[in-house]
Specification:
Layout: H1 11-14, H2 18-29, H3 45-54, H4 75-82, H5 86-96, H6 107-113, H7 117-133, H8 163-180, H9 190-211, E1 224-225, E2 228-229, E3 235-238, H10 247-251, E4 256-259, H11 261-268, E5 272-274, E6 280-282, H12 286-292, H13 294-300, H14 320-329
Antiparallel strand pairs: 1-2, 3-4, 5-6
Helix pairs in contact: 2-7, 3-5, 3-7, 4-5, 12-13
Length: 334
């Protein structure tokens, strides 16, 4: 896919003037719907940026031409406002990450620049602000990054990622790609690969937090206080660690627990584990230390821990194979 040149080069994407943004939006709003399977209008710059922003929310790689119509929020919303089929939105996301050939001239360079989250946040808000001034309301174009109320743009779950492990994974993927001899621009740069890993981890963490209603599965503490979700009150981490998981396991929300920082560390280091019946067990020596140490008892005793992990009525239970891995590889090693 190519992109209209409504200004010059990359600047039209990442540093547009207000007039340029307005012209971009006017061209989108004046567009007529083109049937799927026919040549689409070229993407204008604000569309490209919003497609990149949408990649922070949903995993485009799980959808192709046959399944794009089932892609989750915000793909269908963007397709409607852009007057494009959902397949075009998915394809543009793939272009930006270099996993699909024949992208726009500036797609990869723009994506590299948009890794700067402060830049991305400001640009996203400017694009939405101009859209609102042209009567594109929150129903037609939702604030899918939830930034219009003044929240910061942060990627969840990043503390779990080890830079050296990600670098090793990049080398492994690069070698795998070379062996396949694929002509597409997969793994364009290590920086973009690392960013894609970070985004995948962010989407995983968001799914885990949502599955547990932003509450610690071990003690039930909520990270939502006074009606607002509070940063760093809850952590979403893998049961089977990222470094030991396959690509699919890394993105599987059933391989994750939401926990307060203390209980996240206790589980991650094997002081506690979760059994097949979802009961919580202590590593050898923990209970005797709790009897002698009130502070430890207040942190790891029952209560505040439950006899079983806390799951809401709509929560999906963890996949048992991940719990087994934790008991056999982490818990027993304490």
């Amino acid at each position: 896919m190519t992109t209209d040149s409504m200004s010059s080069g990359v600047a039209a994407f990442i540093d547009p003037t207000d007039d340029t943004l307005r012209d971009q939006w006017l061209s989108v709003l004046a567009r007529e719907q083109v049937p799927a399977g026919t040549n689409q209008k070229n993407f204008v710059q604000c569309e490209v940026v919003l497609c990149f922003c949408a990649s922070l929310v949903m995993d485009y790689s799980r959808f192709g031409s046959a399944s794009a119509s089932r892609a989750p929020f915000p793909v269908q919303d963007l397709a409607r406002v852009f007057k494009r089929p959902p397949t075009s939105i998915i394809a543009k996301m793939a272009n930006l990450y270099g996993t699909r050939a024949h992208g726009g001239k500036h797609d990869l360079e723009v994506a590299e620049r948009l890794r700067d989250l402060d830049l991305l946040r400001g640009l996203y808000l400017r694009i939405l602000d101009v859209a609102r001034s042209l009567s594109v309301d929150e129903v037609e174009l939702p604030d899918f990054l939830h930034l219009e109320d003044g929240f910061a743009l942060q990627l969840e779950g990043q503390a779990e990622l080890d830079v050296s492990v990600v670098e090793t994974e990049f080398e492994r993927k690069l070698e795998q790609h070379k062996r396949k001899g694929s002509p597409t621009a997969v793994l364009t740069t290590q920086k973009m690969f690392t960013f894609a890993v970070r985004v995948g981890q962010h989407r995983f963490a968001q799914s885990v937090l949502a599955n547990h209603q932003n509450c610690c599965v071990f003690c039930g503490l909520s990270g939502t206080i006074a009606g607002r979700r509070r940063p760093r009150m809850m952590v979403a981490s893998h049961i089977k660690p990222w470094r030991d998981s396959s690509d699919d396991e890394r993105l599987d929300f059933r391989n994750g627990f939401t926990a307060c920082p203390t209980h996240d560390v206790a589980f991650d280091t094997g002081l506690i584990t979760v059994n097949q019946d979802l009961s919580v067990s202590y590593a050898p020596g923990v209970e005797s230390d709790m009897r002698a140490t009130p502070a430890l008892r207040h942190a790891l005793g029952k209560p505040p821990l439950g006899e079983r992990i806390f799951l809401g009525p709509d929560s999906v239970a963890p996949e048992m194979s991940y719990l087994t891995w934790h008991r056999e590889k982490i818990y027993v090693a304490v």
